[in-house]
Amino acid sequence: MFRTAISKAYRTPSLVTAAAAMSRGTVGRSASSVIAHRWYSDKTEAATEKKEASDKASETTEPTSISAEEFEKIKKASTEKDAKLKELKDAYLRSLADAENIRNRSKTEVENTKVFAIQKFAKDLLDTVDILELALKHVPKEHLADKVANKSLVDLFEGVDMTRGSLLRTLERHGVESFDPIDKPYDPNTSHALYQAPIPGKTPGTVFSVEKRGYVLKGRVLRSAQVGVVLDPSGN
Question: What is the pTM of this model?
Fold first, then answer.
């Protein structure tokens, strides 16, 4: 009856064997051995399945060998790609440099436009200054000495001189300055020689007469001075 009860309660062969062992008086030792054998078998099967799965994964990830011809094609394609990237990078850098140059030129042009906006207007005013200076130059000095007898002439002279001075100061406020090259070496970049003459005691090549003074605007020659230059008597 004991064996029958065990057979009904456990349907697996391992447990049946355990029940038989129990009926023979070896229940404690034999049942434990059977259950341990069953657990070990399950563990061994799980380890085997895990190893097979790992081997399969290794097989799928194993690098595929390629021929030398395919390797050369891949290498050539990689080289061409690197060359193309370098070309695009160089073109990009050149574009940046060109854009920066254009920006700098535009900035300089804007600044120059602001600085030299009055260039034409200032140059036209110089003609007025020249006329006033010419008028002052032709007034005899002896007439100016007698301020009582020639009061009207003296007042006119002073008025014209004040007008000329006011114009020059206005031009200076806007960056226009005059220069007088008298007794200086002749410079064709800033002066225009109207004539030459041998002058005793003067160094040849120097300016001995200034008919019209020169003017510069922010360091740039606005009008060259009109001068007379000492001529070397030897012709050199």
Answer: 0.53
